[in-house]
Design brief:
The chain is α/β, with parallel strands linked by helices. It is built from 24 helices and 19 strands. An 8-stranded mixed β-sheet has the order 4-5-7-6-8-9-16-19, with helices on both faces. A 3-stranded antiparallel β-sheet has the order 2-1-3.
Length: 809
C-alpha cells in the first residue's frame, strides 16, 4: 500500500509482458522468449522484482534533469546497473534473478522512460499507434511533440500517469492511456484527541504489539487519512472535490474505480474534479509496512510471509529481513485496543472535518461535496448534522454549511425519528463515555463509570454506589468481526490474493492454499482465523476473490455488504476453479433465479416500504457489471486498501444503549415502556442528539443538532439487487432535513413531496427542484454502485457528474 505517487511507475507486470510480447520471438523450454511459454509467470515475477529494485535504487522523481548527475542518461545507467545485477548469477536483493532473454526488453523500458528531463524541457510518456498496421510504441517525447501526425497515420496520446511505457500505455488498438487518474494517500492532523488514544497528551503506550508496529511509543493516531484521486499531469486546481466515506469494513480503495470513472467524465463535461476517499483512523492500526514492500515487488510471497509466516514456520523473506525484520502484528478485540472505546461517532466526524477543511482550501470557491457508501452514508449524514462548535457559546458551526451537496450511495443515511431518549438511556451513554466502556472493553467484563469496578446491571445501584452516574456498562468488542466469515486476518488475506492476481490471475492456485514446504503447510490450514476459507472450493486468485465477493456466492448470501456482480465461475482445471470475468464471457438474462442462472429476472418492483425483512425484495433484471481485473487492484494498490480490518464498534456504540425487559416493562433503556423482549427497550441516537448535547450539556459526546437545517442538495443511489432497493429507503432522511435553498433548487419544493404516491417504495420526491434525487441502478448489487463499469448499464457516473456540475458555485 504505497503512499507516494511512485505507485504510478507500475500497475502490473502483466503490462510489461504485453509490451514484451509485441516484440515477437519463439517460445519453448529454457530458451523461451521473455514472457512466453513455460517461462511466462517466472519472467513476470522476475521483471516485477527487478523493477521494484530499480524503483528503490533509481527513483524516477530524483532524476529531474536539474544537474548532469540527474539526467536521463544517468537514470538509464542507474537502471542498467540494477538489471545487470539481476543477471550476474547472484539474485538481486537475495531474491530476484532475470533471465538473459529478458535483458533487452527490460532495459528498453528504462531507456524509453520519461525520467531525467529538466522542467524546461518537459517530456511525457507518449503512447503511439499506427491504425493502418497495428504497430504500437511507448517512448518519452517532448510534450509539444506528443500529438497526432498531420497525415493522421500516427495517433499519439500524452499519458502522464506513469513515466514508463508498460504502465502508461494500454497497447490496445489505439494505444490509449491506461488511465488518466493517479492517486496518493495523505495523512493530516485531526483536532480530535480522544481519551486513552496514543498521541493524546498524557497517554503512555505499553502494548508490545503497538510498540513493535510503530517502532516505539511516540506515535500519534490522532490523524485523518484520505486517498486523493486526480488527473495525472500538470497540477490543476480542482473545480470540485468529492470526499467519500466507505461503509462497513470498507476502505478508501472501495472508491478507486468510481473515481477513475467520474474524473475523466467530469473533464469531458468541462470541469476538473478530484475524489478524496476517506479512511477511518482505524486504518492506521493495519500493520501494512510489509504489504507495502510486497507491492513494490508485486510479490504475493512477501505478503504471505509478512501476514502468516509465523504460523507457516517459514524463514523470513530476505527483503523483509533487510527491514523491518519482523512480521505483521494483529490485535485482539479486547485488551489490545481498548482506546477504541473513545473513538466515538463525533471523533470520526471531526476527522472527516479535517479532510473537508483541507478540500475547501484546495477547491475553487470551496466547492466540496461529501458522500458515503453503505454505512458510510451514516458518517456522511452525521457530519452534515453536526454542530462543530462544541462550546455551546456563539453561533453554530454546522457541517452541512461547509458543503455544496451530499451523495448517498446504497445507504439510507439516517433520520431524526425515534422515541425520546429516557433519562436512563442518557445516564448510560454518559457512563459509557466517561470511562465505563473503556474498562469494559479492556477487561471484557462489565464495569462502572470508573472503568475498574465490576458490576452487573441488576445490581448496579449497589455495585456502582458513589459513582456518577451509577450505571453499569456491558463489555463490547473494540472492532467488528463476523464470526466465521470476516476478521482482520481474513480481510488482510485479500491483499495477498490481489497481489497474486496482478501476475497470475487465473491459472495457478490461490497462494493461500498452496503448501509452503510440507504437505498441508498452507495458510488456510495453519491460520485458525482463515479456516472458514477452507469451505470454499480450491480456486485461482481471481476464482478465490470471486467466490468471496460475487453476489451469487455463499459468502455474499450471508454477508450481502460484500456482494458484487463480477461474472461467474469458470471451468475447473486440474481441480482448480477458474473465473470468468465480464470481459471474457457474456451473462445474458436467464429467467427466474436458480443456481445456474447468474443474471435472473427478480420480478417487478415492490410497492411497499418498509417491509418486514429489510432491505426489501430484490427486483428487476440482474446484471454482471464489475470487471474482476479492475477490482483486484482495489485490494493492494497504493497507500490504502479495500477493507477496514478494524472497523470500529466500541466507540460508535457509546450513543446506543442495550435495553433490558423485566416482567413486561423496560428496566434499562426506555425505562417504563411495555416490552416483551430486551431489544424493544434499546435506544440509540441517530441524527438528533439534542437531549444529550443540549439537555445534558454533553456536546463532547455528540452534537447532532443541525439535521433539520440541512439546506444543500442531496443525490442518492440504490441497487435493485443491493441493500437500498427502492427510493423509499431515503424517505426518512428526506423528511429529517430542511428545505433546499441552494441556487439549483427552487427554495420551496419539499424534499419528499408525497411519501405514499404512487406508493411508499417509490414516493414522489423533490428531484432537482427540491434538491432530493434518487437514482436506481437496476440489477446492481451492493458494491456495484461504486465498482461497475461506466457504460450503458450504469446510471451512476452520468447522474453523479451532472449533480456535481450543477451545484458547483
Amino acid at each position: 500500500m504505497l503512499s507516494s505517487p511512485e505507485t504510478a511507475r507500475r500497475m502490473t507486470a502483466a503490462a510489461v509482458l504485453t509490451m514484451v510480447a509485441l516484440l515477437g520471438g519463439p517460445a519453448h523450454g529454457a530458451t523461451d522468449k521473455c514472457g512466453a511459454g513455460a517461462s511466462a509467470l517466472s519472467d513476470a515475477k522476475a521483471i516485477a522484482g527487478v523493477r521494484g529494485g530499480i524503483a528503490r535504487q533509481c527513483p524516477c522523481a530524483e532524476f529531474d534533469g536539474s544537474t548532469p548527475a540527474k539526467s536521463h542518461t544517468k537514470f538509464v545507467q542507474c537502471a542498467r546497473k540494477v538489471i545487470n545485477d539481476a543477471l550476474d548469477g547472484t539474485p538481486l536483493l537475495g531474491v530476484f534473478t532475470l533471465r538473459p532473454q529478458c535483458k533487452k526488453e527490460v532495459k528498453q523500458i528504462y531507456a524509453k522512460a520519461a525520467c531525467g528531463y529538466p522542467a524546461a524541457d518537459p517530456h511525457v510518456m507518449c503512447c503511439e499507434a499506427k491504425p493502418s498496421n497495428g504497430q504500437k510504441k511507448a517512448l518519452a517525447r517532448r510534450v509539444s511533440a506528443c500529438v497526432d501526425a498531420p497525415n493522421a497515420q500516427i495517433v499519439r496520446h500524452a499519458c502522464y500517469a506513469s513515466p514508463f511505457g508498460p504502465d502508461a500505455c494500454s497497447f490496445d488498438l489505439a494505444n490509449n492511456c491506461e488511465t488518466l487518474v493517479v492517486q496518493e494517500t495523505v495523512n493530516i492532523p485531526s483536532d480530535a484527541q480522544p481519551a486513552n488514544t496514543p498521541g493524546t497528551p498524557g497517554v503512555v503506550v505499553t502494548n508490545p504489539k503497538l510498540l513493535a508496529q510503530f517502532g516505539g511509543g511516540s506515535f500519534n493516531l490522532n490523524n485523518a487519512r484520505y486517498t486523493r484521486h486526480h488527473l495525472a499531469g500538470p497540477p490543476q486546481q480542482p473545480d470540485a472535490i468529492l470526499v467519500l466515506v466507505p461503509g462497513f469494513e470498507g476502505g478508501a480503495a472501495d472508491f478507486r474505480i468510481l473515481a477513475e470513472n467520474i474524473i475523466p467524465r467530469a473533464k469531458n463535461s468541462g470541469f476538473v474534479l478530484e475524489v478524496w476517499a476517506f479512511d477511518r483512523r482505524t486504518n492506521q492500526l493495519e500493520d501494512s509496512v510489509g504489504l507495502d514492500i510486497a507491492e513494490e515487488f508485486l510479490s504475493p510471497e512477501i505478503a504471505l510471509d509478512w501476514l502468516y509466516g509465523r504460523e507457516l514456520a517459514i524463514p523470513l523473506d530476505p527483503i523483509l529481513a533487510a527491514g523491518p525484520n519482523r512480521r505483521a502484528e494483529f490485535y485482539d478485540t479486547q485488551g489490545d485496543l481498548p482506546f477504541m472505546a473513545s473513538w466515538t461517532n463525533l471523533v470520526f466526524s471531526r476527522d472527516i472535518d479535517a479532510v473537508v477543511s483541507a478540500a475547501r482550501a484546495a477547491a475553487r470557491n470551496q466547492n466540496v461535496f461529501l458522500g458515503g457508501h453503505s454505512a458510510g452514508t451514516g458518517f456522511t449524514a452525521r457530519y452534515a448534522s453536526t454542530d462543530f462548535n462544541l462550546t455551546g457559546v456563539g453561533p453554530a458551526d454546522p457541517g452541512y454549511a461547509k458543503l455544496r451537496g451530499l451523495v448517498l450511495l446504497e445507504g439510507g443515511g439516517g433520520s431524526t425519528g425515534g422515541a425520546f431518549l429516557s433519562s436512563d438511556t442518557l445516564d448510560r451513554i454518559e457512563a459509557k463515555f466517561d470511562g465505563g466502556l473503556f474498562g469494559a472493553v479492556r477487561d471484557n467484563a462489565a464495569r462502572c463509570v470508573d472503568g475498574v469496578t465490576p458490576c452487573a446491571i441488576a445490581t448496579e445501584a449497589a455495585d456502582c454506589t458513589g459513582q456518577v452516574p451509577p450505571k453499569c456498562t456491558l463489555p463490547s468488542a473494540s472492532y467488528a468481526i463476523v464470526p466465521g466469515i470476516l476478521n482482520p486476518r481474513i480481510l488482510a488475506a485479500g491483499e495477498v490474493t490481489g497481489l497474486q492476481a496482478a501476475l497470475d490471475p487465473d491459472s495457478g492456485k490461490d497462494i493461500l492454499i498452496v503448501d509452503q514446504g510440507p504437505v498441508g503447510n498452507n495458510a488456510v490450514a495453519k491460520v485458525s482465523d482463515l479456516a472458514s476459507l477452507g469451505l470454499l472450493p480450491p480456486a485461482t486468485a481471481e476464482g478465490a476473490l470471486g467466490n468471496f465477493l460475487d453476489d451469487d456466492g455463499i459468502v455474499a448470501s450471508i454477508a450481502p455488504f460484500v456482494a458484487t456482480s463480477l461474472g461467474g465461475p469458470g471451468p475447473v482445471v486440474n481441480g482448480v476453479q477458474t473465473w470468468l470475468d465480464i470481459t471474457e464471457a457474456s451473462f445474458p438474462p436467464c429467467g427466474a433465479p436458480s443456481p445456474t442462472c447468474l443474471a435472473p429476472f427478480n420480478g417487478p418492483p415492490p410497492t411497499t416500504f418498509p417491509v418486514p425483512t429489510p432491505p426489501g425484495p430484490k427486483w428487476g433484471q440482474e446484471k454482471e457489471v464489475t470487471r474482476m481485473d479492475r477490482m483486484v487492484k482495489n485490494f493492494y494498490l497504493g497507500g490504502t486498501n479495500f477493507t477496514d480490518n478494524y472497523y470500529p464498534v466500541a466507540g460508535p456504540s457509546v450513543t446506543s444503549v442495550s435495553g433490558v425487559c423485566t416482567a413486561g416493562v423496560c428496566s434499562a433503556g426506555n425505562v417504563g415502556a411495555p416490552c416483551s423482549a430486551d431489544g424493544q427497550c434499546s435506544q440509540a441516537i441517530n441524527l438528533d442528539s439534542s437531549a444529550l448535547s443540549i439537555g445534558r450539556g454533553r456536546r463532547d459526546i455528540e452534537n447532532l443538532t443541525q439535521a433539520a437545517n440541512i439546506n444543500i442538495p442531496v443525490i442518492a443511489f440504490g441497487g435493485t439487487n443491493g441493500l437500498a432497493t427502492v427510493p423509499g429507503v431515503y424517505t426518512a432522511f428526506g423528511k429529517s432535513i430542511g428545505t433546499c435553498t441552494a441556487p439549483s433548487c427552487t427554495g420551496s419544493t419539499a424534499r419528499v413531496v408525497n411519501a405514499s404516491v404512487p406508493n411508499t417504495a417509490f414516493p414522489t420526491l423533490g428531484g432537482v427542484a427540491g434538491g432530493f434525487e434518487v437514482v436506481m441502478a437496476e440489477g446492481f448489487a451492493h458494491l456495484d454502485i461504486v465498482t461497475a463499469e461506466d457504460n450503458a448499464d450504469n446510471p451512476v457516473p452520468a447522474a453523479l457528474v451532472t449533480f456535481l456540475h450543477r451545484n458547483i458555485q
